[in-house]
Amino acid sequence: MKALSLSSSPRYVALLGYGGLLPFVGLLLLILFTVEYRPFLTHALVAYGAVILSFVGALHWGFAMTLQGLNADQCRERFIWSVIPALIAWPALLLPAPLGLLLLIFGFVAHYWQDRRLVKVTTLPDWYLPMRLRLTLVASLCLLLGAITVAVGS
């Protein structure tokens, strides 16, 4: 298996990563400008956020299995963390939308914090953490604006 470049993300990685923001942005725009379908669209935003938060948690499962240089405690921490985003995402689906969206923001920020902790103990590609920051910021901003819109519009 060929390793990814350490200095710049492959084009397809950037396209897939940033392309994953399109539902966040698109759903937010629809929520902002389509009052009639706002409850459905808000539910779609919460659901998409929950799916993506669970997905990014799984990255740490993969890191625990494949990264060289992690000791047993660090691997155990990565495995444990990898399931926590799904455990944050699940109740977000069950809460009233504004609270669920805020819980997802907490999950994305906590995950980015975990990414930062991981980078301190192992080597990841140079592009990984900046890309994760940008993805976290845009997703979280969309979730926050969605939560505010729904809370104020209710």
TrEMBL record:
Transmembrane domains' residue ranges: 12-33, 45-67, 88-113, 133-153
Domain of life: Bacteria
The UniProt record lists the keyword Transmembrane helix: yes
Any matching Pfam family: DUF3429
Listed InterPro entries: DUF3429
UniProt keywords, alphabetically: Membrane, Transmembrane, Transmembrane helix
Name the UniProt record assigns to this protein: DUF3429 domain-containing protein
Organism of provenance: Pseudomonas graminis
Taxonomy of the source species: Bacteria, Pseudomonadati, Pseudomonadota, Gammaproteobacteria, Pseudomonadales
